[in-house]
């Protein structure tokens, strides 16, 4: 069960303004109060009944506007989401960022149902009842259906073979991101040209394949949460050479990994 939900918490604690990024995707539900979410440069004011979806690539900032700020937040595994909801549009909200995507969905009339579903989800996650995994997946699926019905455009996935190929590419990268993997390798795996893959991928996902390779997000998380050496983190993140890792990290974040760790 915990492989799908990596973390699930219900909190009334005061939340200082903070900016961060996760390797895994995040879902936040505001039950009471109000907060401003800044996600990938877009601002949203989330009040009671709002559900916020954040992908693994999106740096985000949260500032509380009205207390008590009561919320649920879940950290989810993308590979496990694919396993739990195969061939379903429900996982697209965690993956794809097409033009016009909205991170914050207001459930409005469905708030009482969403409140009850999150309370049950927390109880199942924290408990040790038989078939808890199946119940967690069922409750999560119901929450995603509520969001889908409120904002179907966020879950839109074209049924074409090209769109299916991009989903295959995403799932392959999510499963193999710690291994040496280039865009050329991925294109060869899918039997398409690197140029065609890059163009189609960005149109559907909102990021290039290179950005979607989760190594640097993973490396940043390791820098912030462990005392592992830069060389060890490079290997754990799928880089065969520490100098390539440092160069890629600097290019992405503007500073080398050692400097990032010191300021984190």
Question: Please, could you describe this protein's structure?
Answer:
The chain has 264 residues and is of the alpha+beta class. It is built from twelve helices and seven strands. It has helices at residues 78-84, 92-95, 111-126, 132-150, 161-176, 183-190, 194-205, 209-212, 215-225, 230-236, 242-253, 257-263, and strands at 5-11, 18-20, 25-39, 42-46, 50-54, 60-76, 104-106. Strands 1, 2, 3, 4, 5, 6 and 7 form a seven-stranded antiparallel beta sheet that branches. The chain is globular and about 50 Å long.
Helix content: 40-55%
What does the overall shape look like? Answer: globular
Unreliable parts:
none
Total strands? 7
Q: How many strands, what sense, and barrel or not for the largest sheet?
A: 7 strands, antiparallel
| Beta-strand content | 15-25%
Question: From the helix content, strand content and strand pairing, which structural class follows?
Answer: alpha+beta
What is the number of helices? 12
Separation of the first and last Cα atoms: 31 Å
Topology, pairings included?
Elements: E1 5-11, E2 18-20, E3 25-39, E4 42-46, E5 50-54, E6 60-76, H1 78-84, H2 92-95, E7 104-106, H3 111-126, H4 132-150, H5 161-176, H6 183-190, H7 194-205, H8 209-212, H9 215-225, H10 230-236, H11 242-253, H12 257-263
Antiparallel strand pairs: 1-6, 2-6, 3-4, 3-5, 3-6, 5-7
């Amino acid at each position: 069960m915990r492989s799908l939900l990596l973390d699930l918490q219900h909190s009334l604690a005061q939340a200082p303004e903070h900016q961060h990024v996760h390797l895994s995707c995040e879902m936040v539900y505001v039950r009471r109060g109000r907060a401003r979410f800044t996600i990938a440069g877009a601002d949203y004011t989330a009040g009671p009944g709002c559900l916020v979806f954040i992908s693994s690539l999106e740096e985000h900032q949260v500032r509380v506007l009205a207390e008590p700020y009561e919320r649920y937040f879940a950290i989810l595994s993308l590979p496990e989401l694919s396993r739990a909801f195969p061939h379903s549009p429900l996982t697209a909200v965690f993956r794809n960022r097409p033009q016009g995507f909205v991170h914050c969905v207001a459930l409005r009339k469905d708030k009482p149902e969403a409140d009850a579903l999150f309370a049950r989800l927390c109880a199942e996650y924290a408990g040790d009842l038989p078939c808890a995994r199946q119940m967690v997946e069922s409750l999560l699926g119901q929450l995603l259906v509520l969001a889908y019905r409120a904002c179907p455009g966020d879950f839109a996935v074209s049924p074409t073979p090209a769109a299916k190929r991009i989903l295959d590419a995403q799932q392959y990268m999510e499963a193999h991101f710690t291994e040496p993997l280039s865009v050329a390798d991925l294109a060869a795996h899918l039997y398409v040209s690197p140029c065609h893959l890059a163009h189609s991928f960005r149109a559907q996902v909102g990021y290039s394949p290179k950005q979607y390779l989760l190594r640097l997000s993973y490396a940043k998380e390791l820098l912030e949460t462990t005392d592992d050496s830069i060389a060890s983190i490079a290997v754990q993140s799928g880089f065969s050479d520490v100098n390539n890792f440092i160069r890629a990290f600097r290019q992405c974040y503007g500073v080398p990994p050692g400097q990032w760790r010191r300021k984190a």
